[in-house]
C-alpha cells in the first residue's frame, strides 16, 4: 500500500509545477498585452529508445533551464517532445502532429538522417526551421532553405583519417560501411581524401544492418584473403558491436592489423557494450570532434549526470558525448535567435483559404514567423558554447579540430589531434597500442593467410639468355627463371624483411610479327593476370601508366652499333674531313664578309683598294683569304680597318690551328672509325636498321622518322653479328639500335669489328613491375638499393657477362665524328661578326655625318644615294696628311743623300733610275737631276725610295 506521505508530496510538487507554468504563460494581471510573456513552441523529435537520444534529451532540458534562468525576458521557449521510435514514418507523423496541432515555430531533430530527409521537406513546405544533428552528406543545406545542420557532416573527418593513413605510409585501405544512404555517403569523400595522399581503396565492404553473424563472418574471411591490412569502419554502434566480435573470431584483431573507426562510433563509444570493447576492440584508432575542456563544461557535466540519473534511474552509467553538447548549444542558439526577432507578437500559422478535400499536409498552412527565425538562425555564433566555439554559417555547423584516440581497456586514450591548417599535431602521433598489444605500427599489408603466392610473369625469348632465361622441369613442370635479372630478383626477395612466396609464369615472345611483346607482358599486371613481372623490362613512361616500377637495377639508354670501316688515310679527299660542311660554308662566308668590310673602310683613303672594278672585286676576295696564310702585304691606313684585321687574324689563327690538329690526328693515328657517326645518316642513306625482337626500340625508331620498311628484328647476338657483317645491300643492316646493356654484351664478344656511336638516348633502366599502388614497390625498391650497393652485384655481373675489361675498344667508348663542327667556333665567329659590323656601322655614321649637306638637300632618295655613292667612290682629300708626309720624306731623302755622300756611284745610279726624285735645295724643295735612276729592285736604296713614294 502506498505511503500517504509520499502521495501528498507528489501532489504538492504537481501543484507547484502547475502554478509556476501558469505564471510564465498567463499575462500578469494589470499589464497590457505588450508586456505579456510570449510563448514560443519548439518541437523535439528524438529516438528515445537510443542512448544518444536520452543524452540529448537531458541536455535540452538543462539548456532551457539555463537560458530561462539567465534571461528574464518576456519570451518563454516551450519544448514539445515526440518519440520517433527509430522509424521514418513515426518521425514524419511526429513532425506533422507538432506542426498541425501544436503549431511549433521550429523543430529540433530528428537525429537519424533518413528520418530527417522527409521532415526537412515538410519544414520547407510550411516554412519552419528544422534543426537536426543528422550528419549524412545526402542532406544538403543549400538545397533546403529551412534546414540547419547542428552537427558536423561525416565528410569533415575524412581528411583526418587520410592524415593518419599517410602518417604511417599505408598505401592501401579497405573501407567497411553500412548499406544505407548514411553509410554510403562518406565513401566518395573518404576515397578522394585518401587519393590526395596517394592511398588507394583496394576494396569496399558493404555490411547490411540486417546481416546475420554468418554473413558478417563470410565477409571478414573474404577480406582476410586480401593483402591489405588497414580497415576504416563506418558503422553505427549496434552493427559495429557485432562486426568487431566477428572480426575477433576471424583472427583479424591480432598483430599486423590496423583498424580506424569514424566519429559515429568513436563519439558514442560508451554506448557500446564494455565487454565488446575489452574483448574485440583493443588497439583500434578512432577520430571524433574535439571538445576543449573548461570549468563550465566540468560543472555542466556534474549537473548533467545528476539530472540524467533522475530522468533515467534504471539505466547504467552513461557518459556525456558531443551530440548532447551540440544539442545543448543548438537549443541555446535557437533561444537567442528567437529572442532577437521575437520582440513583437509572434503570429500563429497562416491557414489555407479553402477547407475542401485537404490532407494533413495541406491543412498545415505556413508559418509567418519561420522565415524571420531561419534568417537569424542561419548565421549565429556562441563563442563560449559547451562544445567549444559553436558557429553556424549559412546553415552549417563549422568544422572543429578532431581528436585521435586509441581504445585501450574499457575506454579510450587521446594520442593526438588533427586540424585543417596544421594536420596531425607534432607531426607524429603519440605511442599507440595496436591490435595484438604491439607498439610497432603495422605495415598495412601482408601475404594472404590463404597461402596464395605472387604470380610473377617472366618473358621467354630465343636469345640474350644472359639476362633472362626460363627453364621448365619436364616432370614437375616447375618454372625456374635464370640469368642476370632473375638472380637480382631472387636476391632482392631474400633481402625483404618478410617472406614473399612467388610463382613464376612464362610469357612467350614469339618470332612472328604479330606476336606479343614486352608491352603486352606489362599489361598482364594491369588486367590482374600477374602480380608482378621480372625480366629485362625497361622502365618507360607509357608503361608506368598501368603499373608501378621499382627503382632500376641497371643503367640504360639507347644507342647504335655499326661496323668499323677501312683506314680513312687512303681517302683522297681526307683534307676536307677535319671540318664539317656547315663550318666550311660559314668560314668561306666570313672570308668574303671581312674582305668586303676592309674594302669599304679602305676604299677612299687607300690607293691599293682603288682602281678598276675588277681589281677592287679581286681585292675583296684576295685580302681576307690571304690572311689564311698571313700573306697579305697591302697596308691599311684606317684604325677601324686595323681593328677588324686584328680580330680576324686571331679567328684565322684559331681556325688554322684546329684544322691542322684535326688533320694531323686523322693522318697519323689509326682509329676504329665507324661507317656512320650519327643515326640521321642512316635515314639519309636509306640504310636498314636492326633491333631486338619485342623491344620498345621499334617505337623509338618510328619517332625518329625511320621508315618501318627499313626495320629488321633479331633475337641473338649471333644474328646481330651476321646482319652487320652483310650490310644493308646484302640482306643485313647498317646499324643495330638497342639498349646499352645488350650493346655492351654484344661488343664484349665482337669488340674489334664494331663500335658504338652516339648520341645516347636516355631511358630509366630495367625495373621490376607491380600493380598500381602495390605496397610491395617501396619495400622492393629499398631492397634493390641494398643489393646494387653491395658486392653481390659485381659478382653477378662477372658470372653472366664475364670480364668486361677484356675489350678495351668497347669499354665505355662512344665513337662520334672527328670532324670539327660549327658549334665549337660560334663564339669566334660572333666576335668577328660583331667587330666587323661595329666598324662598318661606325664608318657609315661618320661618312653620313661628313656628307650631311647631301642628305639635307631636297633631292629624291635615289638622287641622294647616287650622290653619296659618287662621293664614296672618290678618293678622300687628305692634304694635311700629305704635307706632313711630304716633310717627312724630305728629311728622309736628305738623310739618305748625306749618308751616301761618300758613295758617289750609288748616288748617280739612284738619280739615273728615278727621274722624279727631287733633291732638296735647302728651301724645302727638291729638284730633278738628269741622268739619275733608281737602283735595281731588291737593293736597300730601291726599297727606301719605294716606301717614300707609297707614303706620298
Summarize the structure.
The protein has 952 residues and is an alpha/beta fold. It contains 31 helices and 32 strands. The strands form 9 sheets. An 8-stranded mixed β-sheet has the order 7-6-8-9-10-16-17-18, with helices on both faces. A 5-stranded parallel β-sheet has the order 2-1-3-4-5, sandwiched between helices.
Tell me the layout of helices and strands.
Layout: H1 4-25, E1 38-46, H2 51-70, E2 75-83, H3 88-102, E3 106-108, H4 113-126, E4 130-132, E5 147-149, H5 158-167, E6 172-178, H6 181-185, H7 187-195, E7 200-207, H8 213-224, E8 230-234, H9 237-249, E9 258-261, H10 263-266, H11 274-280, E10 285-289, H12 295-311, H13 322-341, E11 349-350, E12 366-367, H14 370-377, E13 380-385, E14 388-393, E15 396-397, E16 402-408, E17 411-419, E18 423-424, E19 454-460, E20 469-472, E21 479-482, H15 484-494, E22 502-508, H16 518-526, E23 532-533, E24 547-549, E25 557-563, H17 581-602, H18 613-626, H19 639-668, H20 679-685, E26 689-692, H21 697-703, E27 711-714, H22 717-726, E28 735-739, H23 740-749, E29 754-762, E30 769-771, H24 776-788, H25 791-801, H26 826-850, H27 852-855, H28 861-873, H29 879-899, H30 904-913, E31 918-920, E32 926-928, H31 940-951
Parallel strand pairs: 1-2, 1-3, 3-4, 4-5, 6-7, 6-8, 8-9, 9-10, 19-22, 19-23, 26-27, 26-28
Antiparallel strand pairs: 10-16, 11-12, 13-14, 14-15, 16-17, 17-18, 20-21, 24-30, 25-28, 25-29, 31-32
Helix pairs in contact: 2-12, 2-13, 3-4, 5-7, 8-9, 9-11, 13-14, 15-24, 17-18, 17-19, 17-26, 19-26
